[in-house]
């Protein structure tokens, strides 16, 4: 391996890496660097793949992991022929059947998700180019040479500047347009082709996220793969309520950065609080440590109802669409900041900031749409400073005796429980509160078991303000709501990949588990933290992002430590790596791609299928989106799946309508090609599923351990992985799993601790040893026998686009 | 009466095809007529009297059990044998007419559910409603499941336990 050593200082860890040869004869100057590398670029077969270019790969995945449909609706109501009844094999007026209709809705969800991430990325990119210039360099520091693994693999370019990212953005937008068009009535008719398109939409989502996060990391100087990123305050109890408070909700860092800049430039850091909910919180805390993280999306209604925020600044995605109404209830001021959610407010972008402040403070406007992040910073800060003092005297939440009185009016109709997404015993809690016992409501509030969607309140025939009651009861323990989270570090360093690539691929590190996504949890946020803790204790690498990362931070172990205090931020065994916000999810497949490139030396550019095949068969990674609710989460999971990474969803995930499930009883589905010797061999069901939904934490934990098995595991690695799978199965199911024989290839695979028991199972099953595949692959032999694919320095399609 | 036969979570309603409301008497008739019934027991069944009633019903009708979530351990602790599957896994197998069933004797023709989380059960029942015309589904939870072929109504605990008691007899 030859490293082009640029004349800059390298971090100490770099020199600890193994298998590096350094050629000092190739020391080059900055200016020559890019030309040298461009000329060395080998383009693979699919740069800028069209909607159908990766279809053959999708078909291989979909043949093994067939779509499983759980229709959420029996009808189609997308055109005026309908509604069409699709039950009992009936087709709609357009000819569509129930499977294709489900797949169509999944594609639509993935397109929406991909559009949300990439429109966010486009906004950021253009805003940052306007601020920094299109020649602003993409420099992620000395330990990250592969700056954009997804862009390299999918687009086939090495972006050097912010302006270079436009090429990837243009491509992504075009693809999403084609994909969305396929959802129109009378277009695609095959469920499998809809699924192939959904996988493409997921890949576009990955691309959009990578563009978004790289843009903000380099231009706003967010942490660049820093494993020692600082711990940031997290929790509703960390906000000083005596100070003016500005709350940011959403995902786009621009307006939050504008607020923090204004506060800093005017030396107001000690005079006010700037905090956030959802990914906006993560990204503003990556930008400036003065920012605080209130918590994940589940805190949104609770915190707004608490009245602590004087000014609420919303940007985009996952904000409550009734936020204006909620702000009005406690005289907070709302500022909308993006074209995605104008909230019906007057556009004040071109007005004088002091005039906007005056109109907001004097209630002449009910809120303001301001599309200039710097102006948002000034207005939000000034308004908060002006109204805070008066607002502190407002009585916003009911007192405890009032709660008791209101609760005693409950008619016991029970509809609050029936409309609750988790059927929580809300009516019982209200009834008890009516008797002066608030403990049940407190239990529901703790750990976000109730994630405050507010549906119960809508249904109450007595119009009881159940969410406000809950918010008030929660305040009794507000001082305990003080936690921390490691600031989102962004990408994984190349040097870290060099260190862990071999242990991951060979199975010595049992797996990389990524806890991502939203807070639609079946039984509270602590489930996510407990799963993370379980795998950290077992030497897995745990990666996290977004609301999942915040939920993990809200948990303390028996010693009272948060998991971020207890575990390092290294991408290594026992490391807890917060990559950042939703868009930072791109670094998770990014790390797997880097393993294929850095450890296995697979070329990236335009070489999607080989990289995905490598990840599917060799990289024991598994995603967990325990509370996934959004279309973005659908796109994230589907995109991850296309790279060959399995994902486990919580039970609400079945409402996405589609999973990708393997069938372990059908041996022919698990034939695998050994590229070393050109033979087809009987493989094992590893990974068993590509997109799975578990009913509870216990089932999910065992499933995740099993989904880290890969055909490429060495016997030592397989032993280790099986040991964890069996341990967890014993813990949660009480027995050694009966299917363990399916994963024993040779006797050396048997974990020593369980040798006797497993041998008994093997004997009972008539088990015979089989050959371990040297180079497992699901690609056709012909796909890999055309080296000319990798010799084209500039692929015609890359030139054309 | 109306509130007894709309889905327990009302927005789980999927369309024009709704479950038949059944009493224990009809439910038992369905079991008697079935050649290869299966009993799916979910993780909500944790404690007596529900746990005991569930085991008694399984024993009375001698129906093989599939446990979902972590219910396998709950039943095992009561020395009741079962086959652990994820609810989506067993649903995936049940929709395949060629699957040989949990005992390898052939696909099941009746699947009776109890104790699965309502909304994931509703989704699984939807899968079977659309893609498993070769079998019937019956739910004996205390919630009306409109995606099943046949379901108990929405009930309060006392009435439900009474229904389950009746399921223990022929």
Give the overall shape of chain A.
Answer: globular
The first-to-last residue Cα distance of chain A is 32 Å
Strands ordered across the widest β-sheet of chain B: 1-7-6-5-2-3-4
Number of helices of chain B: 6
- Rg over CA atoms of chain A: 27 Å
> pLDDT under 50 segments of chain A (min length 5)?
1-36, 786-801
What's the rounded overall pLDDT mean of chain A? Answer: 93
Oligomerization state? heterodimer
DSSP strand content of chain A: 5-15%
Largest sheet of chain B: 7 strands, parallel
Short description:
The model of chain A is unreliable at 1-36 and 786-801 (pLDDT under 50). Chain A is of the alpha/beta class. Helix content of chain A is 42%, strand content 10%.
Observed structural traits:
heterodimer, A: about 800 residues, alpha/beta, six-stranded parallel sheet, about 40% helix, disordered N terminus, B: about 170 residues, seven-stranded parallel sheet, 6 helices, about 15% strand, globular
Describe this structure in words.
The complex is a heterodimer of chains A (801) and B (170). By secondary structure, chain A is an alpha/beta fold. Chain A has a six-stranded parallel sheet, sandwiched between helices. In chain A, helix 7 crosses helix 26 and helix 14 packs across helix 16. Chain B is an alpha/beta fold and 170 residues long. In chain B, 36% of the residues lie in helices and 14% in strands. Chain B has six helices and seven strands, in the order E-H-E-H-E-H-E-H-E-H-E-E-H. Chain B has helices spanning 24-33, 50-61, 71-76, 87-94, 118-131, 157-167, and strands at residues 20-21, 37-41, 65-67, 83-84, 110-114, 136-139, 150-151. A seven-stranded parallel sheet of chain B has the order 1-7-6-5-2-3-4, sandwiched between helices. In chain B, strand 3, helix 3 (71-76) and strand 4 (83-84) form a beta-alpha-beta unit. In chain B, helix 1 packs parallel to helix 6 (157-167) and helix 2 (50-61) packs parallel to helix 6 (157-167). The longest helix of chain B is centred in the C-terminal third of the chain and has 14 residues, at 118-131. The A-B interface holds A 68-75, 85-89, 98, 418-419, 421, 423, 522, 651-652, 654-655, 659, 661, 663, 665, 692-696, 698-699, 703, 732-735 and B 8-11, 14-17, 42-43, 68-70, 72-73, 76-77, 84, 86-89, 91-93, 99-100, 116-120, 123-124, 126-127, 129-131, 133.
């Amino acid at each position: 391996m030859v490293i082009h050593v640029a004349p800059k200082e390298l971090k100490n860890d770099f020199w600890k890496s193994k298998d590096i040869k350094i050629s000092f004869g190739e020391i080059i100057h900055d200016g020559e660097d890019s030309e040298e590398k461009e000329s060395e670029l080998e383009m693979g077969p699919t740069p800028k793949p069209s909607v159908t270019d990766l279809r053959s790969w999708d078909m291989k995945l979909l043949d093994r992991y067939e779509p499983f449909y759980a229709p959420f609706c029996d009808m189609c109501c997308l055109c005026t022929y309908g509604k069409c009844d699709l039950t009992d094999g009936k087709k709609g007026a357009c000819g569509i059947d129930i499977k294709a209709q489900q797949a169509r809705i999944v594609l639509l969800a993935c397109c929406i998700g991909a559009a949300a991430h990439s429109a966010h990325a486009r906004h950021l990119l253009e805003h940052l180019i306007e601020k920094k210039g299109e020649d602003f360099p993409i420099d992620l520091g000395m330990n990250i040479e592969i700056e954009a693994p997804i862009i390299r693999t999918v687009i086939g370019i090495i972006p050097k500047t912010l302006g270079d990212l436009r090429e990837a953005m243009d491509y992504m937008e075009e693809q999403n347009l084609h994909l969305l068009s396929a959802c129109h009535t009378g277009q695609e008719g095959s469920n499998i082709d809809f699924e192939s398109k959904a996988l493409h939409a997921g890949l576009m989502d990955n691309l959009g996220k990578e563009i978004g996060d790289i843009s903000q990391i380099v231009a706003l100087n967010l942490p660049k793969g820093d494993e020692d990123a600082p711990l940031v305050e997290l929790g509703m109890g960390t906000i000083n309520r005596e100070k003016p408070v500005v709350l940011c909700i959403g995902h786009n860092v621009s307006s939050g950065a504008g607020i923090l800049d204004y506060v800093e430039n005017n030396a107001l850091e000690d005079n006010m609080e700037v905090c956030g909910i959802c990914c906006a919180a993560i990204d503003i805390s990556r930008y400036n440590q003065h920012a605080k993280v209130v918590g994940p999306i589940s805190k949104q209604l609770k915190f707004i109802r608490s009245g602590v925020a004087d000014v609420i600044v919303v940007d985009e995605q996952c904000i409550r669409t009734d936020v204006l109404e909620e702000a009005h209830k406690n005289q907070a001021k709302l500022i909308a900041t993006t074209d995605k959610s104008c909230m019906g407010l007057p556009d004040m972008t071109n007005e004088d900031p002091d005039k906007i402040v005056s109109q907001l403070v004097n209630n002449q406007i009910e809120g303001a749409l301001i599309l200039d992040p710097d102006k948002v910073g000034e207005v939000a800060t000034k308004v908060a400073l002006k109204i805070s003092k008066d607002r502190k005297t407002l009585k916003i939440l009911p007192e405890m005796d009032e709660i008791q009185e209101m609760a005693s009016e409950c008619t016991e109709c029970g509809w609050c429980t029936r409309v609750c997404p988790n059927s929580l015993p809300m009516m019982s809690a209200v009834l008890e509160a009516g008797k002066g016992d608030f403990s049940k409501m407190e239990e529901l509030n703790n750990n976000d078991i109730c994630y405050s969607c507010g549906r119960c309140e809508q249904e109450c025939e007595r119009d009881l303000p159940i969410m406000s009651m809950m918010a008030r009861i929660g305040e009794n323990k507000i001082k305990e709501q003080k936690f921390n989270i490691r600031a989102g570090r962004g990408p994984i360093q190349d040097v870290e990949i060099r260190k862990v690539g071999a242990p991951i691929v060979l199975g010595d590190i049992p797996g990389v588990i990524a806890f991502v996504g939203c807070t639609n949890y079946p039984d509270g946020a602590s489930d996510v933290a407990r799963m993370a803790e379980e795998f950290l204790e077992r030497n897995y690498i745990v990666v996290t992002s977004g609301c999942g990362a915040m939920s993990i931070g809200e948990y303390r172990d028996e010693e009272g430590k948060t998991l971020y205090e207890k575990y390092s931020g290294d991408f290594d065994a026992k490391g807890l790596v917060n990559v950042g916000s939703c868009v930072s999810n791109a670094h998770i497949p990014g790390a797997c791609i880097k393993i294929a490139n850095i450890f296995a030396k697979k070329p990236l550019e335009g070489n999607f299928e080989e990289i995905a095949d490598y990840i599917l068969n060799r990289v024991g990674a598994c995603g967990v989106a325990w509370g996934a609710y959004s279309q973005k989460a659908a796109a994230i999971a589907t995109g991850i799946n296309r790279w060959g990474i399995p994902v486990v969803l919580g039970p609400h995930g079945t409402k996405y309508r589609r999973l990708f499930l393997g069938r372990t009883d059908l041996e022919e589905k698990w034939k695998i090609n050994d590229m070393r010797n050109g033979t087809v061999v009987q493989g094992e069901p590893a990974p068993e599923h590509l997109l799975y939904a578990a009913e509870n934490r216990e089932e999910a934990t065992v499933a995740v351990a099993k989904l880290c098995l890969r055909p490429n595991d060495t016997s030592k690695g397989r032993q280790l992985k099986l040991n964890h799978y069996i341990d967890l199965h014993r813990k949660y199911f009480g027995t050694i799993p009966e299917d363990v024989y399916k994963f024993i290839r040779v006797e050396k695979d048997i974990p020593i601790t369980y040798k006797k028991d497993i041998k008994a199972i093997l004997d009972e099953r008539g088990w015979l040893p089989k050959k371990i595949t040297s180079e497992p692959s699901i690609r056709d032999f012909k796909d890999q026998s055309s080296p000319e694919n990798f010799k084209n320095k500039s692929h015609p399609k890359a030139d054309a686009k | 009466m109306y509130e007894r036969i709309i889905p327990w979570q009302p927005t789980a309603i999927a369309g024009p095809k709704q479950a038949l409301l059944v009493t224990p008497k009809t439910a038992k008739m369905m079991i008697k007529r079935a050649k290869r019934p299966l009993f799916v027991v979910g993780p909500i069944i944790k404690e007596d009297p529900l746990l005991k009633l569930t085991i008694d019903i399984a024993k009375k009708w001698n129906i093989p059990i599939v446990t979902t979530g972590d219910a396998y351990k709950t039943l095992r602790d009561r020395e009741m044998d079962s086959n652990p599957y994820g609810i989506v896994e067993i649903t995936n197998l049940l929709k395949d007419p060629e699957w040989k069933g949990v005992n390898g004797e052939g696909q099941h023709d009746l699947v009776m559910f109890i104790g699965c989380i309502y909304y994931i059960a509703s989704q699984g029942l939807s899968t079977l409603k659309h893609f498993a015309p070769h079998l019937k589904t019956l739910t004996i939870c205390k919630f009306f499941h409109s995606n099943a072929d046949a379901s108990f109504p929405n009930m309060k605990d006392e009435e439900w336990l009474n229904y389950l008691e009746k399921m223990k007899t022929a």
